[in-house]
Design a protein that fits this description.
The chain is an alpha+beta fold. The chain is 16% helix and 32% strand. The protein has a 3-stranded antiparallel beta sheet with strand order 1-2-3, with no helix packed on it. It has a two-stranded antiparallel ribbon with strand order 4-5. A two-stranded antiparallel ribbon has the order 6-7.
Length: 91
């Protein structure tokens, strides 16, 4: 699968299927290719994902928007799992 090239400034995405622009209030996700509602948090996520891909060579298919993290609680010594998901926007 060919990963699309993404231009954060103009919010356009080019791929083997052509070029399209995101709606005015949306961003094209670098990781999934889906359109996401534009917010400060989403812009930050997209900026970091774009930097990881372009500056450090990470492949978008190795990135995820939601993930779990297992860790050892230093206070109790118990194994715990933290599931990170993007919270719903505050209205």
């Amino acid at each position: 699968m060919v990963q699309p090239e993404f231009d954060q400034q103009t919010q356009t995405e080019s791929s083997s299927k052509g070029v399209f622009a995101a709606k005015e209030d949306t961003l094209v996700c670098v990781i999934t290719g889906d359109q996401k509602k534009a917010s400060a948090q989403e812009q930050t996520l997209q900026s970091v994902a774009q930097s990881l891909a372009s500056e450090y060579g990470f492949d978008a298919k190795n990135m995820a928007r939601d993930f779990s993290l297992a860790y050892l609680d230093p206070e109790t010594g118990n194994k715990k799992r933290l599931r990170h998901t993007r919270p719903d926007p505050v209205r």
